[in-house]
Amino acid sequence: MSVIKLENVNIKFKRRPLLHNVNFAINTGELVQLIGPNGSGKSTILRVVSGLLEPVSGKVYINDQELLAGKYAENTAVMINTPSFIPTLTGLENLKLLASIKDKIDVGQIETWMKKFGLNPTDKTKVRGYSVGMNQKLGLTQAFMEEDQIILLDEPMNGLDKQSKQKVIEIVKQVREVRPNTTMIVVSHDDSFKDIADRFLVIDGESVVENQTYDEATF
Ligand SMILES: Nc1ncnc2c1ncn2[C@@H]1O[C@H](COP(=O)(O)OP(=O)(O)O)[C@@H](O)[C@H]1O
Ligand SMILES: [Mg+2]
């Protein structure tokens, strides 16, 4: 069964076409790496898949159900661009607030995920004092903590040092082992995803094409 399916999706901004007739399907448990040049529409595709942006035409299906205008994809976690948090709260306070929306997880689970990404839950630093890398780790924690069926990650390696990048790869691998039905789209230019990705979607002009291999020449 396809978990995510786009059918003839067209995206325009102020009549300027960005992506034309996008068609792809992603199956349960797949990890797909989405690649393409800067400004080609990678973040936009994640917004369309999650329901944050409505295409001008075409259909988006999540678990074979059409994603209707104004609805967010269910059981979907998304980290798009630089995550933004409330600057006057600590990392844990921010995540607790976000977790309270769905009320699916407890504080212990939040803390566990923070530690996995190398954040200290008892750190009293307000988010306004966070470095780029710490902020990124907080965004990643948010994306993983509710253990959603679909996880959409936009440039997850941004601002991370080598060791932290390695940690992200290990966590993604672990999630896929423990919860093999987790389906992920990862937008990244980072080489380290190519070894764990099942497939590659590449933005080429206004089209999204499927690549069997990670083609360095495409960006
Ligand atoms: N809300 C918007 N309004 C107008 N143009 C937008 C909007 N969002 C994105 N764009 C434009 O669409 C193009 C693709 O953006 P984006 O998806 O962020 O690219 P990428 O993530 O591949 O770098 C860019 O030219 C960007 O300026
Ligand atoms: Mg982007």
Task: Write a short abstract of this structure.
With 219 residues, the protein is an alpha/beta fold. It has five helices and ten strands, in the order E-E-E-H-E-E-E-H-H-H-E-H-E-E-E. Strand 7, helix 5 and strand 8 (183-187) form a beta-alpha-beta unit.
Polypeptide structure, described:
- α3 (107-116) packs across α4.
- The two termini are 31 Å apart.
- This protein is 28% helix and 28% strand.
- The strands form 2 sheets. It has a 6-stranded mixed β-sheet, with helices on both faces. A 4-stranded antiparallel β-sheet has the order 2-1-4-5, with no helix packed on it.
- The protein is of the alpha/beta class and 219 residues long.
- The structure holds adenosine-5'-diphosphate and magnesium ion (MG).
- The site of magnesium ion has 4 residues, from α1.
Q: What is the mean predicted local confidence, pLDDT? A: 94
What would you call the shape? globular
Give the termini distance in whole angstroms: 31 Å
| Structural classification | alpha/beta
Oligomeric state of the chains in view: single chain
Content of β-strand: 25-35%
Secondary-structure element order, N to C: EEEHEEEHHHEHEEE
Q: Using DSSP, what is the number of strands?
A: 10
Pfam families: ABC_tran
Organism: Lactobacillus corticis
GO molecular function, one term: ATP hydrolysis activity
Protein name: Multidrug ABC transporter ATP-binding protein
